[in-house]
């Protein structure tokens, strides 16, 4: 049994509505891929992971193609 992020593994996609304009936001991938641009955020995530607090979540960055708003969403891992 292995716990994986369903979005990273292409199991399914989720739809997130933009809090600004209500358009569907697009998944820009897990936040860990944005180390260079988002290091202040990532430091947070790393400390959570080391605590085990966010172990069951993969944080994805969603971006609104319409207004440019971005939002981090914790995706629960599933067992496969
Ligand atoms: Zn993921
Ligand atoms: Zn928007």
How many separate domains?
A: 1
Order of adjacent strands in the largest pleated sheet: 2-3-4-5
Radius of gyration: 13 Å
Structural class, from helix and strand content? alpha+beta
- Mean pLDDT metric: 80
Number of helices: 1
> What form results from the Cα inertia axes?
elongated
Q: How many β-strand stretches?
A: 6
**Main pleated sheet:** 4 strands, antiparallel
- Give helix and strand order, one letter per element, not per position: EEEHEEE
Residue windows where pLDDT falls under 50 for at least 5 positions: 42-53
Bound compounds: zinc ion
Our estimate of the beta-strand percent is: 25-35%
Helix content: 10-25%
Oligomer: single chain
What gap, in angstroms, lies between the N and C termini? 6 Å
Protein described:
- Strand 2 and strand 3 (24-30) form a beta hairpin.
- Mean pLDDT is 80; it is low at 42-53.
- The chain has one domain.
- The longest helix has 13 residues, at 39-51.
- With 80 residues, the protein is of the alpha+beta class.
- The protein contains one helix and six strands, in the order E-E-E-H-E-E-E.
- Strands 2-3-4-5 form a four-stranded antiparallel sheet, with no helix packed on it.
- Residues 5, 7-8, 30, 58, 60, 75 line the site of one zinc ion.
Task: Provide a concise account of the structure shown.
With 80 residues, the protein is an alpha+beta fold.
Name its key features.
80 residues; alpha+beta; 4-stranded antiparallel β-sheet; two-stranded antiparallel sheet; 6 strands; 16% helix; 34% strand; binds zinc ion
């Amino acid at each position: 049994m292995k716990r994986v992020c369903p979005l990273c593994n292409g199991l399914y996609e989720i739809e997130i509505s933009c809090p600004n304009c209500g358009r569907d936001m697009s998944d820009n991938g897990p936040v860990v891929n944005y180390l260079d641009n988002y290091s202040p955020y990532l430091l947070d995530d790393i400390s959570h992971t080391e605590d085990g607090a966010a172990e069951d979540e993969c944080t994805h960055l969603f971006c609104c193609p319409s207004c440019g708003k971005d939002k981090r969403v914790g995706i629960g891992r599933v067992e496969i």
